[in-house]
Design a protein that fits this description.
Elements: H1 13-21, H2 40-53, E1 60-61, E2 67-71, E3 83-88, E4 103-105, E5 113-114, E6 121-122, E7 138-140, H3 149-166, E8 176-181, H4 195-198, E9 202-208, E10 213-218, E11 220-229, H5 245-255, E12 271-279, E13 283-292, H6 298-315, E14 320-329, H7 333-336, H8 341-352, E15 358-362, H9 367-373, E16 380-382, E17 385-386, E18 394-396, H10 397-418
Parallel strand pairs: 3-8, 3-9, 9-16, 10-15
Antiparallel strand pairs: 1-2, 2-8, 4-7, 5-6, 7-18, 10-16, 11-13, 11-14, 12-13, 17-18
Helix pairs in contact: 1-3, 3-10, 5-6, 8-10
Length: 419
C-alpha cells in the first residue's frame, strides 16, 4: 500500500500514538458537563493542528469537543459517496490515564510481559492473542496506568492513513471525513453529534481489537429499575411492623441465578446483571442491565426479573415493587444491513491488506450503534487494542500498521467501486 515519503515532516504511526497516549483525556461518569472533562480539549486541539498541517482546511473543534475535518475527493472521484472514520479521544475513567508511560517490548518471544512498575504483568496464559504477536513489538503502559490504545490507537491509525494519502497525490479516493469524539467511555460520545450536518453516507469506528476483525453487531440493551417498597418505623418499636426494603432488595439479588450472568456468558449469549443498589428502609432501587443480541429475547428477560421481584416480595409480606424498563440501544446489525456496501467493502479491504476477515461481536454498546440508529451505518474495524480498561492493556505495532493499511484499502475500494 502507500508508503511514507523519506524525510517526511509528519510523525510516524507509533510516534503519533505515543504522543496521544501521554495526553490525559480520562472522561468522568459523575460530571454534569459536556464533555465530562475539559482535558479532552487538550488532545482535540492537538488533532486540529495536525489535520490542518495535512491540508484539511476545514479541521476544527466545536464547543462539544467534536473534532471534524474533510479530505476532498481526488480528481474524477467527486461522485464517490462520502465515507468517514471515527475514533474517540477519552479513556476509561476507572483506571488512571494520567502520566501514561508507553513501554516498548521489542521482538516479543512469548511468555508473560513484565511491566516496570508495581510488579504487574500481562499473563500469556490469559492472553492467547499474544501468540500471534511473536517476533513483533508490543506496547504497554508501565503498570501504573492504562495505556489508552482504546482508542488512541484508532486516532493514530486514521491520522497515519491521511498522511500517506496526502504524501501520495496519485492515490484515487472519494471524499473522506474524520471525526474524533469525547466521552465514548461514559456513554455520551454521540450525544451532540449531528449526523445530517456531518454528511457521510457510511462511517467506520476504528475501535476494535484483533487484526482482520470487523464488528457489525452489538447487544440490544435495556435496563430494569426495580424499586422495592417497605415500611419504615423507629427500630426500637419495629417488631411485627417494619418491612425493610433493603432486605427485600437483597432477597431479590440473591434470587438472580449465576446462569445467564456476565461472569458465565460469552459469544452470542445475553445476560442479566445487577449493577447498583441504593435506598433505605422505605424504598430501595436495584438497577439491572438486560442484554441480548436478539431483540426478541429482551422481554423474556424483563419478565423473569419481574417474576423474581414477586418472589422476593412474597418472602416479606406487606412489601411491594415497581418495575420500570428503560430502552437504551439496539443491535446495530439491523441498521447496517440497510447499507450492505458498508460491510462488503470493509471485508474486501481487509482481504486486500493481506488478512482473512472475520466478523466479530461487540458485547457492549458503541458510538457506532447510536450513529447507525441515527441513519449513519457504522461498522467497527480493528485497531489492535487488547485488554483495554485495565493496567494490562497492550497493542501490537504490527496490528496498528495493518489497521492503517485497512483504512487506505477501504478508501480505495469505495473509490474503485463507486466512481
Amino acid at each position: 500500500m502507500l508508503q511514507r515519503k523519506p524525510g517526511s515532516p509528519f510523525p510516524g504511526l507509533v510516534d503519533r500514538f505515543v504522543t496521544y497516549a501521554k495526553i490525559h483525556t480520562t472522561s468522568s461518569e459523575s460530571s454534569e458537563t459536556y464533555p465530562s472533562t475539559a482535558r479532552q480539549f487538550d488532545l482535540a486541539r492537538v488533532l486540529v493542528g495536525e489535520l490542518l498541517a495535512l491540508g484539511l482546511t476545514d479541521a476544527a473543534v466545536d464547543e462539544h469537543c467534536y473534532v471534524t475535518a474533510t479530505l476532498p475527493a481526488s480528481p474524477g472521484c467527486e461522485k464517490v459517496p462520502v465515507i468517514a472514520f471515527i475514533a474517540h479521544m477519552d479513556t476509561y475513567p476507572d483506571v488512571s490515564g494520567e502520566n501514561v508511560v508507553p513501554t516498548f517490548h521489542h521482538d516479543y518471544q512469548g511468555g508473560d510481559l513484565l511491566l516496570p512498575q508495581n510488579g504487574r504483568k500481562i499473563v500469556a496464559a490469559e492472553n492467547a492473542y499474544l501468540e500471534k504477536c511473536i517476533g513483533e513489538t508490543i506496547i504497554t503502559a508501565d503498570g501504573t496506568t492504562l495505556l489508552g490504545a482504546d482508542d488512541k490507537a484508532g486516532i493514530a491509525e486514521i491520522l497515519d492513513a491521511l498522511t500517506r494519502i496526502r504524501e501520495n497525490p496519485d492515490f484515487r479516493h472519494g471524499p473522506v471525513k474524520v471525526a474524533f469524539t469525547p466521552d465514548e467511555e461514559v456513554g455520551g460520545g454521540t450525544k451532540h453529534f449531528d449526523v445530517a450536518k456531518f454528511g457521510a453516507k457510511v462511517a467506520y469506528t476504528m475501535d476494535g481489537g484483533q487484526r482482520g476483525e470487523v464488528e457489525s453487531e452489538t447487544f440490544c440493551a435495556d435496563s430494569a429499575v426495580v424499586t422495592f417498597v417497605g415500611r419504615d418505623i423507629h427500630p426500637g418499636y419495629a417488631k411485627d411492623k417494619m418491612i425493610p426494603s433493603v432486605k427485600v432488595a437483597g432477597a431479590f439479588v440473591a434470587l438472580l441465578p449465576r446462569e445467564g450472568a456476565p461472569e458465565t456468558t460469552s459469544g452470542r449469549e445475553g445476560y442479566i446483571h445487577p449493577i447498583s443498589i441504593k435506598g433505605n428502609t422505605s424504598e430501595t432501587e436495584v438497577t439491572v442491565l438486560i442484554r441480548d443480541f436478539e431483540l426478541s429475547e429482551l422481554k423474556p428477560k424483563a419478565d423473569h426479573i419481574g417474576a423474581l421481584a414477586e418472589q422476593a416480595c412474597a418472602q416479606w409480606p406487606g412489601s411491594s415493587f415497581r418495575l420500570e424498563i428503560k430502552e437504551y440501544y439496539r443491535n446495530m446489525k439491523y441498521d447496517i444491513a440497510r447499507e450492505p456496501r458498508a460491510m462488503d467493502y470493509a471485508l474486501e479491504a481487509i482481504r486486500r491488506a493481506g488478512m482473512v476477515p472475520h466478523l466479530g461481536l461487540i458485547r457492549g454498546g458503541t458510538d457506532g450503534a447510536v450513529l447507525s440508529a441515527k441513519g449513519l451505518p457504522t461498522p467497527n474495524i480493528f485497531t489492535g487494542e487488547q485488554d483495554f480498561h485495565g493496567y494490562g492493556e497492550w497493542v501490537c505495532v504490527r496490528d496498528m500498521e495493518l489497521a492503517s493499511d485497512t483504512i487506505l484499502h477501504v478508501v480505495s475500494v469505495w473509490a474503485e467501486k463507486e466512481s
